[in-house]
Design a protein that fits this description.
The chain has 122 residues and is mostly helical. It has three helices and no strands.
């Protein structure tokens, strides 16, 4: 049996599903932050949100396909599971890191927008 094909066959769908789930969650919940940052301009917030979603997909799915290859020999189900756990775990950590990075950027943008609003209305 070709265990590499087993790993690839599980890795890609799991990675894509997790990426889509995280992206949709960020897209849905990040909208409110963007509307606040752009002072209620929903059209601009939605446009930026879609651009962020596209970039998120490109980065994560691109990285997942780049790391698809396994250099080591996989000769058993145990090695298949171990290889999958490393690959999927890495993707999940990257998604988590990108999530916190996005939160940080949203926080900084929102903080800057609030400071601007306070200075403008004073």
């Amino acid at each position: 049996m070709n265990y590499h094909l087993l790993v690839y066959g599980v890795y890609l769908p799991v990675t894509v599903l997790v990426t889509v789930w995280v992206a949709r969650t960020l897209f849905k919940n990040g909208r409110l932050f963007l509307i606040d940052i752009f002072h209620g301009n929903e059209q601009l917030a939605d446009s930026v949100n879609k651009l962020l979603l596209t970039g998120f997909y490109l980065i994560n799915i691109g990285y997942a396909t780049l790391t698809l290859r396994s250099a080591e020999a996989i000769t058993s189900y145990q090695q298949s599971v171990e290889t999958l756990s490393i690959k999927v775990g890495t993707i999940i950590l990257i998604l988590g890191g990108m999530h916190f990075f996005n939160l940080y950027v949203f926080y900084k943008l929102r903080h800057r927008a609030q400071e601007y609003a306070r200075a403008y209305h004073s």
